């Protein structure tokens, strides 16, 4: 390509160089390649730390806008959002280089992700957000087919077994509990394996990005803590659509059904598929917990020592159903999404306490030991500490409570960290005081005295300080009281207040994040049939043993039949709710528009117009007054929305394309300049008036001050 020797040509050449630096992403490129290309761009282009506001209101965000425009006009690869959010997680956990620059890169990835998504139509956004990352092209066909032929016990990521061929055997034997650790290790090493190798060496087969195969963009957003991304309107519309059942993953219930995101239509959807709607799952979960709590109180009130009553048997059934449902949820949602929800920790403790109660109760009944039986009921009484809050977990859907829960969680983490320092100092003082008072107090007594002093009863310490040691006891006790009651307690309050303020300052983001986790946990399972507890014991007791005798396809048919028979009343209840006047559902496809945003349509039209002019051999500048010689410069390759256009004054301006030719563009530029000049003139007049008003106010204040001084004299 030949350029004329002129400043304008030099500018255009630098623009071509800038286009060359953009990531080359094809529509069919795999996730691994997309991540590699995007990572190079962010590392090369972002070398200084910026804030979120600077990316929005200053020129620091121009590179991100240009990248979004370029990708919108050049590719619609569905893994772009997943790749960007994966890189966000990577940069936020990266420990090398300047942490501020890594945070800036992570922020930039998240900004580009939601800006790119906002430039798509709503239906396209649904496809991008719910698209599962496919395996590599060289992955065996058996693994690819296993995605569609999932068993009823398959995890959220069969997906978990989708790896490179060299890692299949090791990962198949890896426990599920290590999933998040594997993901975090993959993210941490992401930047090491991504660059193109030199000297002819092959890239390692164990590419860390393979750990993300099978995840959707929303799941990666949750585990990468992309709260700004999840807080965008289009994302929340999608999540709300999943919550209400407007977007479903199963159209009907039969042995050939495959999981895929689709819009709900009453005419083409199976009514039993509505059992998988997260809203109805949570409603019936609440009913289940109400009955659970009632049985719990009845058993504790009766406290039968000699026999197991009917209500206690029902309580055991509820415990078993709850444990089975929790295990299915753990296997279905995966460790990453499952571990984020704080209520799942409550569920695990409820199951642990219930198992301890049943074991102690059985041992006491066999030995006929009343003391063991009393201990069993005492253990059961601890359930109220977790069951009552768990019953109220639906309050997490309300903004106020959904904000408080992350605040409490963050405060508990900071409290545990701070208590480490307190424990170290406490052990040091306890050792000293115990040795000094070895003749007067035992270790247990001294521990209790110092504990009461720590919690504010300073008088206890002052009363025994002379008994500890006449000389060293008083000064050491004064130091201990000052350090605990003044220094440590005050510091702890400040730390907890800072944690609360930091979370509460982003109240809406925290609420939407909790809400997103709540919905995704209930909707992303790969299991076709979902039995509501306590009916989930039916497949466990009756259908489970049949796996040894019949093939998986026949078992699937039996499970579907059992689900339809056992859940027929629930299905009719859901049908009645949706057909009531306030439950009139529209088709999901009518709620999500396929119309592109105005900016995207103008951008695409302008790019097509410029490409047509380039193909016809015309100058890219149609303005006859342009100073660029026609025919000297021709564009090769795609043209983005960011072009260097010049006015007749010879000044370089970056403008967004608003028409199909440069004449219209220049007209719009001139019109905007005129409007801007009018606004500046009006603003200058207002400033002049304000300055005059301030001067008059100051002169009046001075005159009044002089009058008061004369009056005082």
TrEMBL record:
Top-level taxon: Eukaryota
Membrane spanning residue stretches: 280-301, 313-336, 342-363, 384-403, 415-437, 475-496, 530-550
Family matches, as Pfam families: YVC1_C
Keyword Thylakoid: no
Ranges of biased composition (kind: Polar residues): 617-637
InterPro entries registered for this protein in UniProt: TRP_calcium_channel (IPR052971), YVC1_C (IPR056336)
Keyword Membrane: yes
Occurrences of domain Calcium channel YVC1-like C-terminal transmembrane (ranges): 289-578
Coiled-coil regions listed in the entry: 666-693
Chain spans, region Disordered: 614-637
Alphabetical keyword list: Coiled coil, Membrane, Transmembrane, Transmembrane helix
PANTHER family: ION TRANSPORT DOMAIN-CONTAINING PROTEIN (PTHR35859:SF5), NONSELECTIVE CATION CHANNEL PROTEIN (PTHR35859)
Protein name: Calcium channel YVC1-like C-terminal transmembrane domain-containing protein
Native source organism of the sequence: Amylocarpus encephaloides
